[in-house]
Amino acid sequence: MTSAAILLPVFVQVGLAFYLGFRLGLARRGAVMRGDVRLADIALGRKPWPDHIEQLGNAYDNQFQLPVAFYALVAFAMITSKADVAFVALGWLFVASRIAHAFVHTTSNHVPTRFRWFASGVVIMLVMWVWFALRLLAGAP
């Protein structure tokens, strides 16, 4: 498996984080410029943001939770040369679940749907870790 094939899902996941971060920055700047939010409230750490911006902020924050395990796992799999086709396919499924989760989070924010996407990502991540561990411990090529 090539490095590019292994890392492409990582690049997409990182791109999702940057996309949400830029959207959040623009939304927050707009709220400040319109006077919807006072700088003093921001400086004091109060949560002054309108609900839609808070929702976007939560979606952005989520990109630094479960995906951290993904980044670490991909690095470990590359270092040990244990990233095979199944591993990469699972990586794409994980990233797709994160994109779907972020989409729901930033649109309808329907919690049961959002949770299903989150839970699917957790299960995929668990399967990836187990797959990696089994291949590593079994000495699989």
Give an overview in words.
- With 141 residues, this protein is mainly alpha-helical.
- The protein has a single domain, classed as Membrane associated eicosanoid/glutathione metabolism-like domain (Four Helix Bundle (Hemerythrin (Met), subunit A)), CATH 1.20.120.550.
- It contains six helices and no strands.
- It has helices at 3-34, 39-43, 51-62, 66-79, 85-106, 111-138.
- Helix 1 (3-34) runs antiparallel to helix 3 and helix 5 runs antiparallel to helix 6.
- The longest helix has 32 residues, at 3-34.
- It is elongated and about 60 Å long.
- The mean pLDDT is 95.
Keywords summarizing the entry:
141 residues; Four Helix Bundle (Hemerythrin (Met), subunit A); 6 helices
CATH architecture: Up-down Bundle
Question: If you average the pLDDT, what whole number results?
Answer: 95
**CATH topology tier name:** Four Helix Bundle (Hemerythrin (Met), subunit A)
Radius of gyration: 18 Å
Could you name the CATH class?
Answer: Mainly Alpha
Helix content: over 70%
CATH H-tier superfamily: Membrane associated eicosanoid/glutathione metabolism-like domain
Put the structure in a nutshell.
The protein is mainly α. Helices cover about 80% and strands about 0% of the residues. It has one domain (about 5-140): Up-down Bundle (Four Helix Bundle (Hemerythrin (Met), subunit A)).
Topology, element by element:
Layout: H1 3-34, H2 39-43, H3 51-62, H4 66-79, H5 85-106, H6 111-138
